[in-house]
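Appendix B, Record 12. Input sequence as logged:
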Amino acid sequence: MARPKTPILSKPAIRGAALTLIDRDGLEKLSMRKLAQELAVQAASLYSHYRTKEELLSEVAEEATTHIDVTGFDGGDWREGLAVWARSYRAALDAHPNLLPVIAAGPGRREEALRRADAVHGGLVSAGWPPRYATMIGASTKYLVVGAATNSFSRGFDDDVRVYQDRYPNLSQAHRLAEVAAEIDEDSFELALTAFIDGLVPVYEKVRVRHED
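Logged structural output:
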């Protein structure tokens, strides 16, 4: 009987298997040994492609955030840029919630993440925001997005009406939130994002740097 062929490994295949494992079992379950089992290879084979789990996670995060869009800043409208960036950022986190701690930790040395950070900061400064404010706006947007992706407000309530009857009269409909959780969470994010951007407008009028032609 012929010996089975050793599976051909590649970086994309390793990243894909790692992300599948993370999505299914959680970030804490990822190890090079577990990943090797998923790929039906020896753990040593993985190290010829990735020296450490951290290096692998960095590239997995890069791939998972490919569709975060910062092109909204290209036209010079900082409000449009923030809205497009924030929505696509949240969508990327929502697609892979178990990867959130890695993505939310910051760009580190990830090339694409640094490119996006540069585009966001540059777009805000080019639109007239002072650099310090551009930094704070970038940070504030991240806090809003990561907070929205961390957990569902609506799914945090029990669906048993008896929990709320009599004792919590202002929460008499809380048991129904789970039924419309996705809608409530989406609309709540949009409300917060709109309020955030609208609230920045008067600040912008006070602090903006006027660019001379």
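The chain has a mean pLDDT of 91.
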